[in-house]
Design brief:
By secondary structure, this protein is an alpha+beta fold. It contains 2 helices and 5 strands. The protein has a domain of 75 residues: OB fold (Dihydrolipoamide Acetyltransferase, E2P), CATH 2.40.50.
């Protein structure tokens, strides 16, 4: 009588697909945070908002882009007053408010260091991506462990 094996071993292709999808979704779930971290370059200095300008980037825009003008002293001791070049629709500064300026001497430009924030809808979508990717990653690790045990018991 031949004993048939009912044990099935997951192929490496499925493991690789789970791993790749998991890593891809993990990247998508955190791409805004990654981009935010990459743009936070510059020397941090204390500054003060002296004025706020707003404009429409395109004539058809239904929103305003805010461009704060900031006074600060650069590391060389030179008092400066500059506007942020690109602006943002999310700036919510008031005249006289203290801010952290990111001074970029190589381009003679500034940015304002604001904390990383997501609106509720974006946060929900990004957390879903992150949770699905974590599950896919853990499933691929689980399959690798099962495959290892299956080989050891042969």
């Amino acid at each position: 009588m031949t004993k048939s094996s009912t044990r099935s071993v997951t192929p490496w292709g499925i493991i690789g697909i789970c791993f790749a999808i998991g890593v891809g979704l993990l990247f998508l779930g955190n791409v805004d945070r990654i981009i935010w971290n990459l743009t936070q370059s510059g020397e941090q200095l204390s500054g003060r908002v002296v004025d706020m300008y707003s404009r429409r980037t395109q004539p058809t825009d239904t929103y305003l882009t805010f461009l704060p003008r900031v006074a600060f002293t650069d590391p060389g001791g030179v008092a400066r007053e500059m506007s942020v070049k690109t602006g943002s629709t999310y700036y919510n500064f008031r005249k006289g408010e203290k801010v952290t300026v990111l001074w970029r001497p190589e381009t003679q430009s500034i940015a304002i260091n604001v904390p990383f924030q997501r609106n509720v809808g974006t946060a929900i979508v990004m957390w879903i991506f992150t949770l699905i990717s974590a599950a896919m990653f853990l499933v691929s690790i689980w399959f690798i462990i099962l495959r290892g045990f299956a080989r050891m018991s042969k």
